[in-house]
Amino acid sequence: MRTYGQYCSIARALDILGDRWTLLIVRELLLQGRCRFTDLKNGLPGIATNLLSTRLKELEDAGLIGREDAPPPVATVLYTLAADGLALEPVLKALGLWGLRYMTVERPADAFQARWLAYAASWFTTDTDPDAPPGVIQLLAADERAVIEVGGGQVHSRIGRAVDPDLVLDGPPRAILGLLTGVIDIDLATRIGLTVRGRRDLLARLRPVTDDDRASQPGRCAGSHVCD
To answer: Model-level pTM greater than 0.90?
Structure first.
């Protein structure tokens, strides 16, 4: 393992996590839960097979992930986060929250997947009216679908289609994610291609999470597989 050779906790963390793709592998294991090598590769567009194998071995050696053999008929290796890997969840949430400031530009070559559409709502928004009736929002972006369920002060999200959504947001990822996370307002989102159908009042209930919210809710759980 390469090392910065510094007696500093940040440097020690980067000795393990600082290589390219490493934190994105952790992201996928947080979102997907226990998964196969092919599941990981599909969730990491652009990574080479040999590099993914190398990074998984490094993370396993560092005690951040484990592997187990799935029983027949699957009969393949499943990867999962160990306790030290799961402890990175608030780190990734904080990093993602910080990175929202750079999401105003949607590059044409950027890959986009439904999991990333779903987790953003759970990780980066909060319900401002816990006493209001529950609501369901269907998200449609770049041919990917995700569902937001808001109610009781909680925001949950998942991949897929809602049977009878109260609100549908349809448009480019930049418009939907930008609106949900407060990077852009609804007027700009509409100008860049967002269409809104249904109960617009639900948008007022979804307030973007702030750094102060994170500090006051250290155990807040989110993501399609991270909590149910």
So the answer is: no
